[in-house]
Amino acid sequence: xxxxxxxxIMDIRPFVxxxxxxxxxxxxxxxxxxVKRKEIVAAVGVAGTIAALYATYKLFGYAQPQYAFFDMFVxxxxxxxxxxxxxxxxILTICISVKFMEIEKASCGEYYxxxxxxxxxxxxxxSAADLIVLYLGLExxxxxxxxxxxxxxxxxxxxxxxxxxxxxxxxxxGFLLYGISLTFGLTGTTNIRDIAxxxxxxxxxxxxxLYLGMIFIVVAFGFKIALAPFHMWAPxxxxxxxxSITAFMSVGPKAAGFAVLGRVLFDAFGGMQVQWTSxxxxxxxLTMALGSIIALSQxxxxxxxxxxxxxxxxxxLLGVIAGTPEGLTxxxxxxxxxxxxxxxxxxxxxxxxxxxxxxxxIEDFKGxxxxxPLAAALMLIFMFSLTGIxxxxxxxxxxxxxxELINSGYTYLAVIAVVxxxxxxxxxxxxxxxxxxxxxxxxxxITTSPSMSIALAITCVMVxxxxxxxxFLLNLVRYSILx
Amino acid sequence: MVPLSWYIMLSAxxxxxxxxxxxxxxxxxxxxxxxxxxxxxxxxxxVAFSHxxxxxxxxxxxxxxxxxxxxxxxxxxxxxxxxYKNNPTIKVDEINLLKG
Amino acid sequence: xxxxxxxxAMIKYTLIPLLPFLAxxxxxxxxxxxxxxxxxxxxxxxxxxxxxxAVSAFIDVANGQVIxxxxxxxxxxxxxxxxxxxxxxxxxxxxLLVVTSISTLIxxxxxxxxxxxxxxxxxxxxxxxxxxxxxxxxxxxNFLLLxxxxxxxxxxxxxxxxxxxxxxxxxxxxxxxxIVNRFGDFGFGLGVILIFLTLGSLDYMEVFNRAGGxxxxxxxxxxxxxxxxxxICLLLFCGAVGKSAQLPLHVWLPDAMEGPTPVSxxxxxATMVTAGVFMVAxxxxxxxxxxxxxxxxxxxxxxxxxxxxTIALVQNxxxxxxxxxxxxxxxxxxxxxxxxxYSAGIFHLYTHAYFKALLFLGSGSVIHALGDEQDMRNMGxxxxxxxxxxxxxxxxxxxxTGIPFLxxxxxxxxxxxxxxxxxxxGKFLWFLGTAAALLTAFYSWRLIYMTFHGKFRGTDEQEHHxxxxxxxxxxxxxxxxxxxxxxxxxxxxxxxxxxxxxxxxFLAPVLGHAQGHGSHAEEYFVIxxxxxxxxxxxxxxxxxxxKKPEIPAxxxxxxxxxxxxxxxxxxxxxxxxxxxxxxxxxxxxxxxxGFDTIVIEGIVNGIPAxxxxxxxxxxxxxTGLISNxxxxxxxGALCMLIGYMVFSG
Amino acid sequence: MTVHQLIFxxxxxAMTGISLLVVTRRNPVHSVLFMLVLFVHIAALYLFLxxxxxxxxxxxxxxxxxxxxxxxxxxxLNLRREETEEKFHRQWPVSAGAVAVLAVFFIxxxxxxxxxxxxxxxxxxxxxxxxxxxxxxxxxxxxxxLPFEIASIILLVAIIGxxxxxxxxxxx
Lengths: 483, 100, 649, 172
Hints:
Chain C is mostly helical. In chain C, about 75% of the residues lie in helices and about 5% in strands. Chain D folds into two domains: about 1-85, NADH-ubiquinone/plastoquinone oxidoreductase chain 6, subunit NuoJ (Four Helix Bundle (Hemerythrin (Met), subunit A)), CATH 1.20.120.1200; about 125-170. Chain D contains seven helices and no strands. Chain D starts with a helix and ends in a 6-residue tail after the last helix.
């Protein structure tokens, strides 16, 4: 269905997954008023997500992208794959949150509906075919996450995290809007496909105005992804936010940022690849360098994982730099793998949290293998995967990105990435060292719950399975993006 | 007629002033106002483009920007108040518990 | 001929390595809290299952079904394709049989030997992991998987050598094995990379098919041109030298005896150390292209055979004698490979696995009975206390020394005959080999006499506790004894029996026939010579240790320098320490005082410290202030703008 | 110089000046009040650009709602210290420099802007024939229906967020 002149009921069809999820969010708000137990709210939230997942599954597999709402919205394999990441992120986050939010004394139904609204925002971003829809999706995601970051209102750190995230996020939105405005002014449209056509038709590939617009858009997306030098909010916000939200933020907005970055750069600014590649390369190197090096001297594990997530954003960006659809595929593949390993690592951090004990210092992991061998073994797997040691999934993710990079002729970048990847082994393996080679300090008590076990089982199994049988995921992502 | 570039230059100046306000002021509320100034400068440019290109897109986007700005103000000020309750300051250089 | 395997066959072949791996997973996860001292109930059925499947695979191969299949494509990216696949041909079928059968027996033996050890479940877990890795190594159909198995068996070996890690010597031995093997593995890794770079594939068949194409090409290293294939083969052989403890990297193996005796038997005698032999045989199509590499292999093998045998003459630690004997026998195998008699080498590998495992397990039985006493000077007269152990020891010794019609006789004779046929160099190496056989006979019987004959020389308390080992230990010994007697009957020289060399014929499709001619008279001469030295060595030992026990001491006194030289293992350990370790220390310590603090410490501590301080410095950028962050973002955007202005003019 | 241009120049100077005043006043209340003056100017500018609807929205929503919310919060926080302390952050000279360079490049680049693409259908006459509100409304509820609905969710999130963050105490 192409751009019609009238709206029909068929326009709803590609939008069904988002609609399902939004309805679930609304239901949760109401449900929260009548149901006391938050577990039920959480369960309904997961059910709603699974319904949306089912809708995406049913809609998956059209060879041609489906446009709807006068070309505002597009359903294609690319967006569907990213939606899969968002669903997984949402489900896993809900699973690891239930017990944790109780301990934080911030358990409320709105928490789950906000998570769902944020995820809806990401999905809208991934499916946006128009910069206006993209902007609104981004704001929906951003506003929900600002609130989530500050949800533990009694905690000074949480307040500060929300404050920083909000101010800097709004600042970056300003840049995004100016970028959209300039692009619109030069091409006369906000539709992503039409922008590409207009750029060719008007022959403005080398226009400094368009370049300025593109840069401003990249600034905003770089902020969401946490690419240096727009990454500085990330460590502070990740550290201050409730840990479950940190897990959510480190995957969701990043993936959404990459989804729109890929779509806008490849589709709208496809004619300016030379320009944006030369912008992204220094960003990628700086991102990997800062992330890997600063993480070395961290003492707080959430903060360390924040820097790690910055470094990983650098690796993922390499797939975009490769500049081919295959490169973008490898980035999407990496993001999916990153979802599992990162949320898994955060889940272990959450398990250490208990009444009156934060469990966020790396020191707190001392001797974990002695008291809780299973938890330590899981953390070991996640750390290995984040480092990129075969046969974990992390290796496969990195391998494909580097391979695509080399195929595109950026061998030197791949070498740099491998070097930083080797440096990053130090701080990941430091955790392993603390767990396995140090004697326990004080007694470690682990808080667990059935939903937490499910999340850990999913993440751990996927990290291992995708490491050993990567072709399944790779076929999926190739089929989704390359068709 | 007034050339399009004049409007855009005006908007660029306002945007830069907004950025300056955000970067240089210590008071969070004034920083927030500077953010609003940035958004308004964008709106000016959008309306100007919309007029000169005889397209509706720009005006519609401005409409949405205003909507989002309202939502943003509500949330931002709520976060600010929540912060202020725990730590009564709105000086940006005193807000650095999280660093390193 | 290759046949498309059925799904059932694929499952079967996958299960062979998978069963021990499952046993490892189960034991390592549940061992500590649930399985504890029942770990063998997981491990033994798994290994036995592998054995049964291996027998079935062997029958398939014997019926002509050679299988080479990619079970799973791990990474597919453009031209680069990494597959995990199995190549089950005559060579790997024999290796499978050896590995699984010996593993099964040693697992059973370990139930008795390791009884009551606090790390019981851990022991079986590591041992299962080892079997898994070894099977992967053997079954691989490409170099990458081979390398994976190669490193994995090494890893298990270090774990198991240092199994009693609270014992300092055990921990040190593990470390030593690790470090020495680094040298070899580094070369091996380089070889694999070089193969990939020059031939563009890691799959055995593709590599072997393309290898002919690069014959005669040269590679420039430091200004000199070397034959490419020779370089590749020598690099691969480096790995074999490390893993199979050949000169000059043999030093780790005797120390590795610090590990539990079943480990010594399984890993350091029967299987892992023969991986180098297997690898060279597997890559024989490459080695065949380089005469230089072949001669190197033969010479290293021959020298190691005699060299290790001389050391074994005077050692007093029962396990060390057998360890040097292993090094020496491995030398024989390389000798065979080096003269192109690959099937003779594999034949000896196969018979050696049985009699050497038997020797180790027998000595384990002795050590067990004496309460962890390993010094033969404190033994003696055990014949009457441990009749069963004594009998199997005699069988193993007859076999290793090459007494006719036992396993060792046929395989060793095959090697010596093939070596003899290779011209002047062959004659010389044959002489070395025969001399080594004499020494072998001598030190083997010396071991028997010192341990089982004469009067008991240990403490009264030990004597009081002397007992025969329980059936769980002796039954596997008897099974191995059967192997030590009969394993050689598949390789009877044609000269003695028409179509007797069945193993040679069996392996011929993979390894080819050995080249060389010789008359029947010469062959009879070689056989007679080996029988003669075997008997001579026995008689000398008998005279020295039974008839006139004072002779060894007299000899030791008379030829003190030689005795010292041998006793101290030619001072090789000391030499390495003097040549490599101490000069470094001296240089760092005395010559340039302060050099060490600046350079060595600088490198060891400096780089991490530098990165750390760098990291600390960079942390300071992260001020925590919103304004600073916003400024950095603005500056970032500005840089992009300026960059554009600068570069696009 | 046409009259139009003269009027624009007035607006440009006035708006730049007011913007500077907004970001430099010591008292936030003054800043907000100058902001209101700026909004009136912006609304007037919208009228010149044929955006009557937006001019109204600018006054009603921005000036009438958002800025009042700001004032409300300023009153609520009761900021006394503002009178005596440093207005600017320590880094302000760097910021000023960076922003000045950015502004120079920015203005240099946008000064070259001209109308390139084909003109759309919403000419002044077309808008005038239907009226600005009707035109906007028609577009908003057909072509931009989806963004409009998303905006509604954003407002809902804002309401939930404000309540969650500001309500007295959690019920658990």
